[in-house]
Amino acid sequence: MDIEFHQLDLRYEGLRRRAPEREKRLLASLAQMGQQAPIVVVGGDGGSRVVIDGYKRVRALRQLKADTVLAMSWELAEVEALLLERLMRRGESDGALEQAWLLRELHSRFALSNQELARRFDKSESWVSRRLALVEDLPEEIQAQVRVGAIVAHAAMKFLVPMARAN
């Protein structure tokens, strides 16, 4: 289905960090060949569609002044769709910060306990707690820089988290 941009709810865009070089390649590909793969959405409030996967495609298509985006709708609850999408890209290199952002979102928006998150991610409660502590310790300004690709996630975790904890 084709969806107009104003119908998209981009509430989970901040859960993934950007890679400017990959986005440039995607932009070139979309300009040359058009959209090949649909984004994934679920039903939202008031007829909107919550984007689960495809934020880079949405940004690129907007830059290309497209009117609509090709989308596939999953008939799942938001929380289930987020967990399924994460499971489907498990082979990709999800960094600790991206994992932490998703855990924090699932914990705060859907009230999933640390125990439930550990079960859903097939990890220990300690792993969940450490990831959640990571986003609590790292200042939001630094996290924003990691999201847009201005600071490498590894550097933020290795050098800036210890400094934030010391302060």
In words, what does this structure look like?
This protein is an alpha/beta fold and about 170 residues long. It has helices spanning about 20-35, 55-65, 80-90, 95-110, 115-120, 125-135, 140-145, 155-165; strands spanning about 1-5, 10, 40-45, 50-55, 70-75. Strands 1-5-3-4-2 form a 5-stranded mixed β-sheet. Strand 3 and strand 4 (about 50-55) form a beta hairpin. Helix 1 crosses helix 2 (about 55-65). The chain is globular and about 45 Å long. The protein starts with a strand and ends with a helix.
List the helices and strands and how they pair.
Elements: E1 2-4, E2 8-9, H1 20-33, E3 39-43, E4 49-53, H2 55-63, E5 68-73, H3 78-88, H4 96-110, H5 114-121, H6 125-137, H7 140-147, H8 153-166
Parallel strand pairs: 2-4, 3-5
Antiparallel strand pairs: 1-5, 3-4
Oligomer classification:
single chain
Largest sheet: 5 strands, mixed
User: Which regions have little confidence, pLDDT < 50, spanning 5+ residues?
Assistant: none
Rg calculated over all Cα atoms:
17 Å
Counting H and I runs of at least 4 residues, what is the number of helices? 8
| Class by SSE composition | alpha/beta
* Average of the residue pLDDT scores: 88
| SSE order, one letter for each helix or strand | EEHEEHEHHHHHH
Strand order of the largest sheet: 1-5-3-4-2
What's the number of extended β-strand segments?
A: 5
Rounded to the nearest angstrom, the distance between the terminal CA atoms is 50 Å
Roughly how much helix do the residues carry, as a percent range? 55-70%
- Beta-strand content estimate: 5-15%
